[in-house]
Protein backbone atom coordinates (compact mmCIF):
# COMPACT_ATOMS: atom_id res chain seq x y z
CA UNK A 1 0.00 0.00 0.00
CA UNK A 2 1.08 3.55 -0.73
CA UNK A 3 0.61 5.93 2.22
CA UNK A 4 -0.40 9.37 0.98
CA UNK A 5 -0.91 12.63 2.83
CA UNK A 6 -3.09 15.47 1.63
CA UNK A 7 -3.30 18.92 3.19
CA UNK A 8 -6.45 20.98 3.36
CA UNK A 9 -6.52 24.73 3.38
CA UNK A 10 -6.43 26.42 6.76
CA UNK A 11 -9.67 27.12 8.57
CA UNK A 12 -10.17 30.04 10.96
CA UNK A 13 -12.50 30.14 13.96
CA UNK A 14 -13.10 33.00 16.40
CA UNK A 15 -14.12 31.82 19.89
CA UNK A 16 -14.46 34.13 22.88
CA UNK A 17 -12.48 33.87 26.09
CA UNK A 18 -14.47 32.38 28.95
CA UNK A 19 -17.14 30.93 26.64
CA UNK A 20 -17.45 27.28 25.66
CA UNK A 21 -15.83 26.49 22.29
CA UNK A 22 -16.98 23.41 20.33
CA UNK A 23 -15.60 22.33 16.94
CA UNK A 24 -16.83 19.12 15.29
CA UNK A 25 -14.48 17.11 13.06
CA UNK A 26 -16.93 15.62 10.56
CA UNK A 27 -16.02 12.34 8.89
CA UNK A 28 -17.99 13.35 5.77
CA UNK A 29 -15.65 16.31 5.35
CA UNK A 30 -12.64 13.97 4.99
CA UNK A 31 -14.25 11.13 3.02
CA UNK A 32 -13.70 12.93 -0.26
CA UNK A 33 -9.96 12.85 0.30
CA UNK A 34 -9.81 9.05 0.45
CA UNK A 35 -10.42 6.69 -2.50
CA UNK A 36 -13.81 4.96 -2.59
CA UNK A 37 -14.43 1.25 -2.43
CA UNK A 38 -13.46 -0.87 -5.49
CA UNK A 39 -17.09 -1.38 -6.52
CA UNK A 40 -18.51 1.72 -8.23
CA UNK A 41 -21.56 3.22 -6.64
CA UNK A 42 -20.97 1.63 -3.25
CA UNK A 43 -21.13 4.02 -0.30
CA UNK A 44 -17.81 4.15 1.54
CA UNK A 45 -17.87 3.91 5.31
CA UNK A 46 -14.20 3.64 6.16
CA UNK A 47 -13.13 3.86 9.81
CA UNK A 48 -11.51 7.26 10.32
CA UNK A 49 -9.70 8.50 13.41
CA UNK A 50 -8.26 11.93 14.14
CA UNK A 51 -5.13 13.17 15.82
CA UNK A 52 -4.97 16.77 17.06
CA UNK A 53 -1.98 18.68 18.37
CA UNK A 54 -0.67 22.20 18.69
CA UNK A 55 1.64 23.01 15.80
CA UNK A 56 5.19 22.28 16.85
CA UNK A 57 4.10 20.35 19.97
CA UNK A 58 2.97 16.76 20.57
CA UNK A 59 -0.24 17.66 22.43
CA UNK A 60 -3.01 20.22 22.52
CA UNK A 61 -3.20 23.34 24.71
CA UNK A 62 -4.26 22.78 28.28
CA UNK A 63 -7.72 24.29 27.84
CA UNK A 64 -8.58 22.27 24.71
CA UNK A 65 -9.90 18.66 24.90
CA UNK A 66 -10.73 16.11 22.22
CA UNK A 67 -13.06 13.11 22.17
CA UNK A 68 -14.07 10.47 19.61
CA UNK A 69 -15.86 7.36 20.80
CA UNK A 70 -15.45 5.11 17.76
CA UNK A 71 -13.76 5.34 14.33
CA UNK A 72 -17.26 5.60 12.83
CA UNK A 73 -18.27 8.71 14.82
CA UNK A 74 -17.25 12.34 14.48
CA UNK A 75 -14.51 13.84 16.61
CA UNK A 76 -15.13 16.89 18.81
CA UNK A 77 -12.72 19.58 20.00
CA UNK A 78 -14.07 21.50 22.98
CA UNK A 79 -12.90 23.68 25.82
CA UNK A 80 -12.99 27.12 27.36
CA UNK A 81 -10.28 29.55 26.18
CA UNK A 82 -8.54 31.60 28.85
CA UNK A 83 -7.93 35.31 28.94
CA UNK A 84 -4.17 34.72 28.64
CA UNK A 85 -4.60 33.46 25.06
CA UNK A 86 -6.48 36.49 23.78
CA UNK A 87 -4.85 37.94 20.66
CA UNK A 88 -2.57 34.93 20.14
CA UNK A 89 -3.59 32.69 17.23
CA UNK A 90 -3.50 29.02 18.17
CA UNK A 91 -2.80 26.66 15.26
CA UNK A 92 -4.11 23.12 15.73
CA UNK A 93 -2.94 20.43 13.33
CA UNK A 94 -5.72 17.93 12.53
CA UNK A 95 -4.67 14.67 10.90
CA UNK A 96 -7.30 12.18 9.72
CA UNK A 97 -6.30 8.50 9.37
CA UNK A 98 -8.18 6.12 7.11
CA UNK A 99 -7.88 2.76 8.87
CA UNK A 100 -8.72 0.81 5.69
CA UNK A 101 -6.36 2.36 3.15
CA UNK A 102 -3.78 3.80 5.62
CA UNK A 103 -4.00 7.18 3.95
CA UNK A 104 -3.92 10.49 5.81
CA UNK A 105 -5.44 13.90 5.25
CA UNK A 106 -4.37 16.95 7.17
CA UNK A 107 -5.43 20.54 7.62
CA UNK A 108 -4.86 23.30 10.15
CA UNK A 109 -7.42 24.87 12.43
CA UNK A 110 -6.49 28.44 13.40
CA UNK A 111 -8.19 29.51 16.62
CA UNK A 112 -8.29 33.29 17.07
CA UNK A 113 -9.41 33.91 20.65
CA UNK A 114 -11.36 37.12 21.10
CA UNK A 115 -12.02 38.99 24.32
CA UNK A 116 -15.62 38.67 25.54
CA UNK A 117 -17.65 41.51 26.98
CA UNK A 118 -18.25 41.47 30.73
CA UNK A 119 -15.69 38.72 31.22
CA UNK A 120 -15.85 36.87 33.42
CA UNK A 121 -19.53 36.56 34.27
CA UNK A 122 -19.77 37.12 38.05
CA UNK A 123 -22.32 34.42 38.90
CA UNK A 124 -21.35 30.89 37.92
CA UNK A 125 -23.16 27.61 38.58
CA UNK A 126 -21.88 24.13 37.82
CA UNK A 127 -24.39 21.30 37.33
CA UNK A 128 -23.72 17.57 37.28
CA UNK A 129 -25.93 15.74 34.76
CA UNK A 130 -25.98 11.98 35.41
CA UNK A 131 -27.75 10.74 32.27
CA UNK A 132 -25.48 12.31 29.68
CA UNK A 133 -22.07 11.68 28.15
CA UNK A 134 -19.85 14.55 27.17
CA UNK A 135 -20.25 14.07 23.39
CA UNK A 136 -24.05 13.97 23.80
CA UNK A 137 -23.99 17.17 25.82
CA UNK A 138 -21.79 18.92 23.25
CA UNK A 139 -24.47 18.59 20.57
CA UNK A 140 -25.86 22.04 19.83
CA UNK A 141 -29.53 21.08 20.24
CA UNK A 142 -28.96 19.29 23.58
CA UNK A 143 -26.85 22.10 24.97
CA UNK A 144 -29.44 24.60 23.78
CA UNK A 145 -32.22 22.72 25.58
CA UNK A 146 -30.20 22.69 28.80
CA UNK A 147 -29.43 26.41 28.64
CA UNK A 148 -33.10 27.06 27.98
CA UNK A 149 -34.09 25.13 31.10
CA UNK A 150 -31.48 26.99 33.19
CA UNK A 151 -32.71 30.30 31.83
CA UNK A 152 -36.26 29.49 32.88
CA UNK A 153 -35.29 28.91 36.50
CA UNK A 154 -32.65 31.66 36.69
CA UNK A 155 -34.09 34.43 34.51
CA UNK A 156 -30.79 36.16 33.62
CA UNK A 157 -30.26 38.79 30.97
CA UNK A 158 -27.12 37.09 29.72
CA UNK A 159 -26.37 33.39 30.03
CA UNK A 160 -23.38 31.55 28.58
CA UNK A 161 -22.01 28.03 28.81
CA UNK A 162 -18.52 28.40 30.25
CA UNK A 163 -17.16 24.87 30.26
CA UNK A 164 -18.12 21.19 29.95
CA UNK A 165 -16.12 18.44 31.64
CA UNK A 166 -16.59 14.70 31.62
CA UNK A 167 -16.99 13.03 35.00
CA UNK A 168 -14.07 10.75 34.09
CA UNK A 169 -11.80 13.81 34.04
CA UNK A 170 -12.91 14.58 37.60
CA UNK A 171 -11.96 11.16 38.93
CA UNK A 172 -15.21 9.38 38.13
CA UNK A 173 -15.36 5.66 37.40
CA UNK A 174 -16.16 4.13 34.03
CA UNK A 175 -19.80 2.93 34.18
CA UNK A 176 -20.79 -0.65 33.59
CA UNK A 177 -22.03 -1.41 30.05
CA UNK A 178 -25.48 -2.35 31.30
CA UNK A 179 -28.82 -0.55 31.27
CA UNK A 180 -27.37 2.16 29.02
CA UNK A 181 -25.52 3.75 31.94
CA UNK A 182 -23.81 7.11 31.33
CA UNK A 183 -20.58 8.46 32.73
CA UNK A 184 -22.04 11.88 33.61
CA UNK A 185 -20.93 15.37 32.69
CA UNK A 186 -20.29 18.66 34.52
CA UNK A 187 -21.68 21.79 32.85
CA UNK A 188 -20.68 25.24 34.09
CA UNK A 189 -22.82 28.23 33.12
CA UNK A 190 -22.44 31.88 33.93
CA UNK A 191 -24.95 34.71 34.27
CA UNK A 192 -25.00 38.39 35.08
CA UNK A 193 -27.71 38.29 37.77
CA UNK A 194 -27.67 36.69 41.24
CA UNK A 195 -28.82 33.12 41.73
CA UNK A 196 -32.52 32.45 41.87
CA UNK A 197 -34.29 31.14 44.96
CA UNK A 198 -34.68 27.74 43.31
CA UNK A 199 -30.93 27.32 42.93
CA UNK A 200 -30.44 28.52 46.52
CA UNK A 201 -32.69 25.78 47.88
CA UNK A 202 -29.82 23.31 47.82
CA UNK A 203 -28.12 25.37 50.54
CA UNK A 204 -30.99 24.84 53.01
CA UNK A 205 -30.06 22.86 56.15
CA UNK A 206 -32.76 20.27 55.39
CA UNK A 207 -31.37 19.61 51.92
CA UNK A 208 -27.82 19.57 53.22
CA UNK A 209 -28.86 16.92 55.74
CA UNK A 210 -30.51 14.85 53.03
CA UNK A 211 -27.35 15.09 50.90
CA UNK A 212 -25.21 13.91 53.82
CA UNK A 213 -27.53 10.90 54.14
CA UNK A 214 -27.19 10.19 50.38
CA UNK A 215 -30.78 11.21 49.73
CA UNK A 216 -31.97 13.51 46.97
CA UNK A 217 -32.79 17.03 48.13
CA UNK A 218 -36.20 18.57 47.56
CA UNK A 219 -35.83 21.16 44.77
CA UNK A 220 -38.96 22.84 43.42
CA UNK A 221 -37.52 23.53 39.96
CA UNK A 222 -36.20 20.02 39.42
CA UNK A 223 -39.26 19.10 37.36
CA UNK A 224 -38.21 21.58 34.66
CA UNK A 225 -35.03 19.53 34.13
CA UNK A 226 -36.29 16.03 34.93
CA UNK A 227 -37.93 15.45 31.55
CA UNK A 228 -34.56 15.41 29.78
CA UNK A 229 -31.77 15.98 32.30
CA UNK A 230 -31.24 14.15 35.60
CA UNK A 231 -29.33 16.62 37.75
CA UNK A 232 -27.53 15.64 40.95
CA UNK A 233 -28.42 18.64 43.09
CA UNK A 234 -26.05 17.58 45.86
CA UNK A 235 -23.11 18.23 43.51
CA UNK A 236 -24.21 21.66 42.30
CA UNK A 237 -21.64 24.40 42.85
CA UNK A 238 -22.61 28.09 43.11
CA UNK A 239 -19.81 30.67 42.86
CA UNK A 240 -20.38 34.36 43.43
CA UNK A 241 -17.29 36.21 42.25
CA UNK A 242 -18.62 39.54 43.52
CA UNK A 243 -18.31 38.43 47.16
CA UNK A 244 -14.96 36.74 46.93
CA UNK A 245 -12.41 38.50 49.08
CA UNK A 246 -8.76 38.38 48.25
CA UNK A 247 -7.00 35.84 50.39
CA UNK A 248 -3.63 37.61 50.14
CA UNK A 249 -2.16 38.35 53.55
CA UNK A 250 0.90 40.36 54.30
CA UNK A 251 3.74 38.22 55.55
CA UNK A 252 4.92 39.18 59.01
CA UNK A 253 8.57 38.38 59.24
CA UNK A 254 9.74 36.59 62.34
CA UNK A 255 11.52 33.45 63.35
CA UNK A 256 11.76 30.88 60.61
CA UNK A 257 11.14 33.27 57.71
CA UNK A 258 14.15 34.02 55.57
CA UNK A 259 14.72 37.54 54.32
CA UNK A 260 13.69 38.35 50.80
CA UNK A 261 16.57 37.59 48.47
CA UNK A 262 15.04 39.20 45.41
CA UNK A 263 14.15 37.56 42.14
CA UNK A 264 15.86 34.38 41.03
CA UNK A 265 18.53 34.99 38.46
CA UNK A 266 19.43 31.85 36.54
CA UNK A 267 23.01 31.44 35.30
CA UNK A 268 23.78 32.80 31.89
CA UNK A 269 24.17 30.63 28.81
CA UNK A 270 27.82 31.68 28.39
CA UNK A 271 29.19 29.51 31.18
CA UNK A 272 32.52 27.85 30.50
CA UNK A 273 32.67 24.09 30.28
CA UNK A 274 34.22 22.35 33.26
CA UNK A 275 36.88 19.62 33.02
CA UNK A 276 35.90 16.60 35.10
CA UNK A 277 39.08 14.58 34.40
CA UNK A 278 40.62 15.35 37.78
CA UNK A 279 37.35 14.49 39.54
CA UNK A 280 37.31 11.20 37.67
CA UNK A 281 40.81 10.35 38.83
CA UNK A 282 40.06 11.19 42.43
CA UNK A 283 36.81 9.20 42.39
CA UNK A 284 38.13 6.03 40.72
CA UNK A 285 41.93 6.00 40.67
CA UNK A 286 42.52 6.65 44.39
CA UNK A 287 40.15 3.89 45.67
CA UNK A 288 41.56 1.50 43.05
CA UNK A 289 45.15 2.16 44.20
CA UNK A 290 44.24 1.58 47.85
CA UNK A 291 42.47 -1.67 46.96
CA UNK A 292 45.54 -2.84 44.99
CA UNK A 293 47.89 -2.17 47.94
CA UNK A 294 45.64 -4.08 50.31
CA UNK A 295 45.51 -6.98 47.83
CA UNK A 296 49.31 -7.15 47.61
CA UNK A 297 49.66 -7.12 51.39
CA UNK A 298 47.14 -9.92 51.75
CA UNK A 299 48.83 -11.95 48.99
CA UNK A 300 52.24 -11.59 50.73
CA UNK A 301 50.79 -12.75 54.04
CA UNK A 302 48.94 -15.72 52.55
CA UNK A 303 51.61 -16.92 50.07
CA UNK A 304 55.04 -15.69 51.22
CA UNK A 305 54.69 -16.19 54.99
CA UNK A 306 53.66 -19.85 55.02
CA UNK A 307 55.75 -22.09 57.36
CA UNK A 308 55.39 -25.35 55.41
CA UNK A 309 55.33 -29.01 56.51
CA UNK A 310 59.09 -29.32 57.06
CA UNK A 311 59.24 -26.45 59.50
CA UNK A 312 56.21 -27.80 61.29
CA UNK A 313 57.92 -31.26 61.70
CA UNK A 314 61.09 -29.66 62.97
CA UNK A 315 59.22 -27.86 65.75
CA UNK A 316 57.15 -30.93 66.73
CA UNK A 317 58.50 -33.50 69.30
CA UNK A 318 59.56 -36.90 67.86
CA UNK A 319 57.22 -38.91 70.07
CA UNK A 320 54.25 -36.89 68.78
CA UNK A 321 55.31 -37.50 65.20
CA UNK A 322 55.60 -41.26 65.88
CA UNK A 323 52.12 -41.34 67.37
CA UNK A 324 50.72 -39.43 64.45
CA UNK A 325 52.43 -41.77 61.98
CA UNK A 326 51.10 -44.85 63.79
CA UNK A 327 47.57 -43.46 63.72
CA UNK A 328 47.84 -42.78 60.00
CA UNK A 329 49.23 -46.27 59.33
CA UNK A 330 46.43 -47.95 61.31
CA UNK A 331 43.81 -45.90 59.55
CA UNK A 332 45.24 -46.91 56.17
CA UNK A 333 45.17 -50.58 57.13
CA UNK A 334 41.54 -50.41 58.22
CA UNK A 335 40.57 -48.75 54.99
CA UNK A 336 42.39 -51.39 52.94
CA UNK A 337 40.72 -54.17 54.92
CA UNK A 338 37.32 -52.66 54.41
CA UNK A 339 37.76 -53.01 50.66
CA UNK A 340 38.23 -56.84 50.91
CA UNK A 341 34.96 -57.80 52.52
CA UNK A 342 34.20 -60.51 49.94
CA UNK A 343 35.75 -63.65 51.62
CA UNK A 344 35.21 -67.36 50.89
CA UNK A 345 32.59 -69.26 52.88
CA UNK A 346 33.83 -71.99 55.30
CA UNK A 347 33.75 -75.59 54.02
CA UNK A 348 31.11 -76.52 56.62
CA UNK A 349 28.66 -74.21 54.90
CA UNK A 350 29.15 -75.60 51.38
CA UNK A 351 26.62 -78.08 49.87
CA UNK A 352 27.25 -81.79 50.72
CA UNK A 353 25.87 -85.16 49.59
CA UNK A 354 23.42 -87.06 51.72
CA UNK A 355 25.15 -90.22 52.91
CA UNK A 356 22.12 -92.46 52.26
CA UNK A 357 20.04 -90.95 49.47
CA UNK A 358 22.89 -89.20 47.63
CA UNK A 359 20.91 -85.97 47.37
CA UNK A 360 22.58 -82.58 47.67
CA UNK A 361 21.91 -81.17 51.09
CA UNK A 362 21.68 -77.34 51.32
CA UNK A 363 24.26 -75.61 53.48
CA UNK A 364 23.58 -75.16 57.10
CA UNK A 365 24.03 -71.43 56.88
CA UNK A 366 22.39 -69.66 53.98
CA UNK A 367 23.51 -66.31 52.73
CA UNK A 368 20.66 -64.43 54.37
CA UNK A 369 20.85 -66.38 57.60
CA UNK A 370 22.26 -64.78 60.69
CA UNK A 371 25.04 -67.15 61.74
CA UNK A 372 25.70 -65.29 64.95
CA UNK A 373 22.51 -66.61 66.49
CA UNK A 374 23.26 -70.24 65.57
CA UNK A 375 25.48 -72.55 67.58
CA UNK A 376 28.76 -73.61 66.12
CA UNK A 377 27.71 -77.29 66.14
CA UNK A 378 24.28 -78.82 65.94
CA UNK A 379 23.06 -82.02 67.43
CA UNK A 380 21.99 -84.97 65.36
CA UNK A 381 18.35 -84.40 66.23
CA UNK A 382 18.44 -80.96 64.66
CA UNK A 383 19.99 -82.11 61.39
CA UNK A 384 17.54 -82.64 58.55
CA UNK A 385 17.44 -85.97 56.73
CA UNK A 386 19.42 -87.58 59.52
CA UNK A 387 19.72 -91.42 59.20
CA UNK A 388 18.80 -93.32 62.34
CA UNK A 389 21.55 -95.81 63.38
CA UNK A 390 20.22 -98.85 65.23
CA UNK A 391 21.46 -99.21 68.74
CA UNK A 392 23.22 -102.35 70.03
CA UNK A 393 21.28 -104.58 72.37
CA UNK A 394 22.68 -106.49 75.34
CA UNK A 395 23.75 -110.17 74.91
CA UNK A 396 21.35 -111.39 77.49
CA UNK A 397 18.35 -110.59 75.31
CA UNK A 398 19.32 -112.95 72.46
From TrEMBL:
<dbReference type="Pfam" id="PF20989">
    <property type="entry name" value="Sarcoglycan_2_C"/>
</dbReference>
<dbReference type="GO" id="GO:0042383">
    <property type="term" value="C:sarcolemma"/>
</dbReference>
<dbReference type="Pfam" id="PF05510">
    <property type="entry name" value="Sarcoglycan_2"/>
</dbReference>
<keyword id="KW-1133">Transmembrane helix</keyword>
<comment type="similarity">
    <text>Belongs to the sarcoglycan alpha/epsilon family.</text>
</comment>
<keyword id="KW-0963">Cytoplasm</keyword>
<dbReference type="GO" id="GO:0030425">
    <property type="term" value="C:dendrite"/>
</dbReference>
<keyword id="KW-0325">Glycoprotein</keyword>
<feature type="transmembrane region" description="Helical">
    <location>
        <begin position="280"/>
        <end position="303"/>
    </location>
</feature>
<keyword id="KW-0812">Transmembrane</keyword>
<dbReference type="InterPro" id="IPR006644">
    <property type="entry name" value="Cadg"/>
</dbReference>
<comment type="function">
    <text>Component of the sarcoglycan complex, a subcomplex of the dystrophin-glycoprotein complex which forms a link between the F-actin cytoskeleton and the extracellular matrix.</text>
</comment>
<protein>
    <recommendedName>
        <fullName>Epsilon-sarcoglycan</fullName>
    </recommendedName>
</protein>
<keyword id="KW-0472">Membrane</keyword>
<keyword id="KW-0966">Cell projection</keyword>
<dbReference type="InterPro" id="IPR048346">
    <property type="entry name" value="Sarcoglycan_N"/>
</dbReference>
<feature type="domain" description="Dystroglycan-type cadherin-like">
    <location>
        <begin position="12"/>
        <end position="120"/>
    </location>
</feature>
<dbReference type="GO" id="GO:0005856">
    <property type="term" value="C:cytoskeleton"/>
</dbReference>
<keyword id="KW-0206">Cytoskeleton</keyword>
<dbReference type="GO" id="GO:0016012">
    <property type="term" value="C:sarcoglycan complex"/>
</dbReference>
<dbReference type="InterPro" id="IPR048347">
    <property type="entry name" value="Sarcoglycan_C"/>
</dbReference>
<keyword id="KW-1003">Cell membrane</keyword>
<dbReference type="GO" id="GO:0005794">
    <property type="term" value="C:Golgi apparatus"/>
</dbReference>
<keyword id="KW-0333">Golgi apparatus</keyword>
<keyword id="KW-0832">Ubl conjugation</keyword>
<dbReference type="InterPro" id="IPR008908">
    <property type="entry name" value="Sarcoglycan_alpha/epsilon"/>
</dbReference>
